[in-house]
Design a protein that fits this description.
single chain, about 750 residues, alpha/beta, 30 strands, globular, binds beta-D-glucopyranose
Length: about 750
């Protein structure tokens, strides 16, 4: 209160000063355009000027691409993009130009003319770097391309947890752990928004399978949701401070996510303290008054909804008093507030800005290099050396380029599609390969070797070629896309291809490009496995640099790779065998025990555990200590040393476990860090453990309850490679459901933090 009054006094003084300066006369008469005021003050000044019609216009978004026979995109939209919401020129409020998504500036498949932009590796790949700085740098880069392309809202920030490796959109998200996913996605959002544009965290919430995503009903215990998917969103909101949240297609516990009061108001507003606006996914609005009263602020992407719920029906609901004027004003205020606080009004975007493609290629290449995970390296077959004189690349279109994930996030690269014409050509395709050829990159790095390519369609021919080579590199790909789920079995008989090649040459290395986990029945028969995910527009070069040791691998898995589907909480994917259009429920027997937590709780041995990743050097960790944290959590300190002969970066993981059990799983990831070290060098790290990660969420009392007792903190290289342990006694403690940390790292400092009421 005190600081608010001080702010008001300062504001009045400023306004008086402004009134005497002719140059500032305009901001005096239009105070909402005065950058010296807070976003809240500016939003309320602007709102006071607006007619009802103007207010309503901010709440209804249009698809910015022609659709079907009848729908024509608004002329003022950026054609081929996801969305457009008109501005209010007389008040200096710009339109909202919306573009997908998390790897770069996308173009909708329906648009003939594609924007050619830099694509980052998939969200899963960036998360596998375990380096928030890398996520931030990527976000800053794609956000700058969005700005230069005339967009001020980026629909990026997918943070749905990987509950099922068959989810077709896992590649867009941040893996299975709430701390890792929320931290990484939050960092990306902060990077995007550093361009004075809005980023949108999505899809809120529990949209963890694509099959019948717009009708299925995800059922989960609320407390379990708070400790898993919703905690990932909460960390993402705290670290990224996104201007908006996108609610998802599915129902949650029987209620559509976009009209679910518990989700949109009780949790998001009251507990997370989120102050931006909630937009729907494209076609996820189902009502007018119910949705608005539940906490929805903006309906997106007309004509995807059955009715224009937030246009005429909303106007009528306001006129008849069914929707209180106060709520209308609140919806508008939230949108305006994000536009002011994130710089959309003060720093207008324009189309046609310059893009430094060469510099951006470096950003995406580094991200790909840091996110690729060396899963297996028998006999140190990697890195390849000049002793490999005959190298054959097999399959995966490795002569042409690298694979990308499909759907609305599809970003098109300069140079077009390297492998055009693959099915499906239309939605949810096309299948796009970026023209970054692993073959050419490897040829450049191995000038003394004969490097050839064979397409792998005939396993026998591939085996013959492998038998003549010193090293066989099989490129095995799984295309994944929005709106359909995937199989965890590699498609097109690639398992048989790998088997045939491995039988012919024991120096077989598999390079995977997949959206998420796949099964590897051939694991014991190959020497090396590199998971490159979808590595983005410089992916070919990144893969070559890793294989040849120009770059030391440092990615670690953000997801558990199962041995078989029988190990999953839902061995058969829900919806399997049902006719299209039939709704079904997705039960969540695992609750908050997602991924490695499920495997730990059930005593299951994974194919590769969460957190796993190899390096060309070695590390030792020592000196672990744990102490109580200032906020009810803990701090852990330890030393990491590079004990090998190459420079390299290690991902250090700290897991926590209550000695007496009582959690959803034996242990949780409590903190992590990444350290880059020269050979022989060491560094001491201190990491904070958030108290919520030591608590159980109690739905009855809406609180985070930490049980008193002994806690173990374990230094680890993966969820199954645990080193030393430190113990700590914690007194019982209860934090309110609305508890939030002070000064969360990664949040923009200064005004924005203050305005968020922290
Ligand atoms: C997707 C969203 C996307 C939107 C706009 C939807 O189908 O689920 O992630 O942002 O389309 O393209």
């Amino acid at each position: 209160m005190f600081s608010k009054n001080r702010r008001t006094i300062a504001t009045v003084a400023l306004l008086l000063a402004a009134a005497s300066a002719p140059a500032l006369a305009q901001t005096a008469s239009q105070p909402w355009l005065n950058p010296a005021l807070t976003a809240d003050e500016r939003a309320s000044f602007a709102l006071a000027q607006m007619t009802n019609e103007e207010k309503l216009s901010l709440l209804f978004g249009y698809f910015a691409t022609d659709f079907g026979a009848d729908y024509k995109a608004p002329k003022a939209g950026r054609y081929g993009s996801a969305g457009y919401i008109p501005g209010i020129p007389r008040l200096g409020i710009p339109p909202q130009w919306e573009t997908d998504a998390g790897i770069g500036v996308a173009t909708q498949g329906g648009a003939a003319q594609k924007r050619e932009r830099t694509a980052l590796p998939s969200g899963m790949a960036t998360t596998a770097s375990w380096n928030p700085d890398t996520a931030f740098a990527g976000g800053r880069m794609i956000g700058s391309e969005a700005r230069s392309s005339g967009f001020n809202v980026m629909l990026a920030g997918g943070v749905n947890l990987t509950r099922d490796p068959r989810n077709g959109r896992n590649f867009e998200y941040g893996g299975e752990d709430p701390l890792l996913a929320g931290t990484m996605v939050g960092a990306q959002i902060a990077g995007i928004q550093s361009n004075n544009i809005i980023s949108t965290i999505k899809h809120y919430a529990l949209n963890d399978l694509e099959t019948e995503r717009s009708i299925h009903d995800a059922r989960i215990n609320r407390g379990a949701a708070r400790m898993s998917d919703l905690l990932a969103f909460q960390f993402g909101v705290e670290r990224g401070n996104p201007g908006s949240v996108m609610c998802s297609y599915n129902k949650l516990n029987g209620d559509w996510a976009c009209e679910n009061k518990w989700l949109l108001t009780d949790v998001l507003r009251n507990d997370f303290g989120f102050r931006g606006y909630v937009m729907t996914d494209w076609g996820a609005t189902h009502s007018t008054v119910k949705a608005a009263m539940a906490g929805l602020d903006q309906a997106s992407g007309w004509p995807f909804d059955k009715e224009p719920y937030f246009r005429e029906p909303l106007a009528k609901a306001v006129a008849s008093g069914q929707l209180p004027e106060a709520r209308l004003n609140e919806m508008v205020t939230r949108i305006l507030r994000s536009m002011f606080s994130l710089g959309l009004v003060d720093h207008p975007v324009n189309e046609g800005g310059a893009i430094d493609l060469a510099a951006h290629a470096e950003v995406t290449r580094k991200d790909a290099e840091e996110g690729a995970v060396l899963l297996q390296n028998r006999g140190n077959i990697l890195p390849l050396t000049s002793r490999a004189k005959r190298i054959v690349l097999i399959g995966g279109h490795a002569d042409k380029g690298v694979l990308s994930g499909g759907g609305s996030s599809q970003t098109y690269a300069v140079g077009g599609n390297a492998v055009p014409g693959l099915d499906p050509k239309g939605w949810p395709g096309p299948v796009v390969y970026y023209p970054s050829s692993p073959l050419k990159a490897i040829q450049r790095l191995a000038p003394g070797a004969t490097v050839t390519y064979i397409d792998g369609r005939d396993p026998a021919a591939a085996a013959r070629a492998a038998a003549r080579a010193d090293v066989a590199l099989v490129f095995a790909n799984q295309w994944a896309t929005e709106s359909i789920d995937v199989s965890v079995v590699l498609p097109d008989n690639q398992d048989a291809l790998i088997d045939a090649v491995a039988a012919a040459n024991r120096n077989t290395i598999v390079v995977l490009q997949t959206g998420g986990p796949v099964l590897m029945p051939w694991k014991q028969r190959v020497a090396g496995i590199l998971e490159a995910w979808y590595p983005g527009t410089a992916g070919g070069q990144a893969i070559a640099n890793l294989l040849f040791g120009r770059v030391n691998p440092s990615g670690h898995l953000p997801v558990t790779f199962p041995i078989s589907e029988a190990q999953l909480p839902r061995p058969v994917r829900p919806g399997t065998g049902l006719p299209a259009g039939q709704t079904f429920t997705i039960e969540h027997p695992e609750g908050a025990a997602v991924g490695y937590k499920w495997f730990d709780a059930r005593g299951l041995q994974p194919l590769f555990p969460f957190g796993h990743g190899l390096s060309y050097t070695s590390f030792a960790m020592s000196g672990l200590t744990a102490a109580p944290g200032a906020d009810g959590g803990a701090t852990v300190s330890f030393t990491v040393r590079n004990t090998g002969k190459r420079r390299g970066a290690e991902v250090v993981q700290v897991y926590a476990a209550p000695a007496n059990g009582g959690w959803e799983a034996p242990k949780r990831l409590a903190a992590f860090g990444k350290v880059d070290l020269a050979p022989g060098a060491s560094k001491r790290l201190t990491l904070n453990v958030d108290p919520r990660l030591l608590a159980m969420f109690n739905e009855g009392t809406n609180s985070w309850d930490i049980a008193g007792g002994t806690y173990r903190f374990m230094l680890a290289r993966s969820a199954r490679d645990i080193g030393s342990t430190a113990t700590l006694q914690l007194a019982p403690k209860s934090l309110p459901g609305s508890w939030r940390p002070v000064g969360v790292p990664g949040q923009p400092a200064g005004g924005t933090l203050g305005e968020r009421g922290r």
